[in-house]
Amino acid sequence: MKLSIIVPVYNGEKFINRCYNSLMNQQLDDFDYEILFVDNNSIDNSIKIIKQLATLNAKVKLISQPRQGEAQARNKGIETAKGDYLYQLDVDDEVFPNVLKHMIKVMDAHKDVEAVFGKMLKTDKTLATFSEELEETHKLIFEQKPFWGLKWFSNLGTVVGEGAFMHRKSVFAKVGTYTEQLPIIGTDLAFDIKLGMTCNIVFMDTYIYLYFKHEISLIQGVKKKMPRAFMVWPRLVKEHLSLYLENDTPSKFKSLLFSQLFQSMGRQLVFTDGFAKRKRLKGQLMSDLRDIHIPFSIRFYLTILVILPLEMLRKIYGYYLVPYTVKKLIK
Q1: Which CATH architecture has domain 3-221?
Q2: Partners of 123 in the beta sheet?
Q3: Angle CA(212)–CA(62)–CA(29) in degrees, nearest 5?
Q4: What is the pLDDT of residues 178-199, one digit of tens each?
Q5: CA nearest 277: which of 306, 246, 299?
Q6: Rounded CA gap, 89 and 95, in Å?
Q7: pTM of the model
Q8: How far apart are the C-alpha atoms of 12 and 216, rounded to whole Å?
C-alpha cells in the first residue's frame, strides 16, 4: 500500500466530515491508500459518524485506542498503518486540495528523502470560507541534516505541526514513535526536532494544511492550565537531553539545550509559591539533570531564586548569567 492517512479523534463530531471531505479532495485515485480514524475514547457521536463514512468508503477504517492521549492515538495509527508513507491530520484541521498527491511524488522521486513537509496556515476560518491569496512557490528546498532540527529547536515558532509532514513508515523505526509521557503540547515538537536532527527531509514551499484555531482544541486548554515553563521541561529532559546524551550532536544543539534547560529552571522556581515548594522543586530539577554537569554559578543563583523568587532577579539570571555560563560551557 502506498499511503496511510492517520486521523486521531477525540470528541470530533463537529469536524469529522469536514476533515474527511478535504481528504477526498486529494485526487488519490491512482494510489492504493487507507484512511485510519483512531478514536481515543470519544463520548460524542464521533464513532457513529466514522462508521457511517466507512459504510460509504471501504478505504475508511475505525480504530480504537483506549489509552488516552494524542501520542497514544498517533502511535496506534502508526502501528496499524499498512502504507509505505504515513500522513497524519488532526480531526479539526483540513488539507489543501491535491497536496498529498504532490508529496507522494516527491517521496517517489527522491528515495533518500525520509520525510517531506510544507507550510501550515493557522486561522479561525475553514477552507470553504478562506479566500485570501497564499504565497507559495512550490519549490523544493534540500538541506543537510541537522539543519531543520537546529532551526526548529532554536525557534519553536518555525515548527509547522504534523499535518504538514509526510513520512516514510521506516522513519518511525529509526527515530521512534511519539513519547507518550509528554504533555500534549510537547509531543509533536519533540518528535519533529529529533526528526530534523537525524533524518533527511525536504521542504516543499506549498501550503499543506489548515490548522483550525478554536477554543475547544486540546492544546488551547492545556495552555490555559499550565505555565509554559512547566510544559517545556518534560520535553527538554526526556527528549532533547536524551538525544544529546546518546548521540554526537553539534555544539549549537548543546548550546540551545543547556540554555533552555537553565532558563526553564529559573522560570519554574519564580512561578512556584512557597519556600518549601521551591526548595523541593529545585532538588527535583537538579535530579532530572544528574547526568550532566551544572556549573556552580547556575546552582548558586537558583538557590537565590528559591529564597527570593523575584522576576527582576530572574531576568538578570536569564539575560546575563545563563548566556555567559553556556558560552563558557561550549568552549
Answers
A1: Alpha-Beta Complex (3.90)
A2: 212
A3: 75
A4: 999 887 777 899 999 999 999 9
A5: 306
A6: 8
A7: 0.92
A8: 10
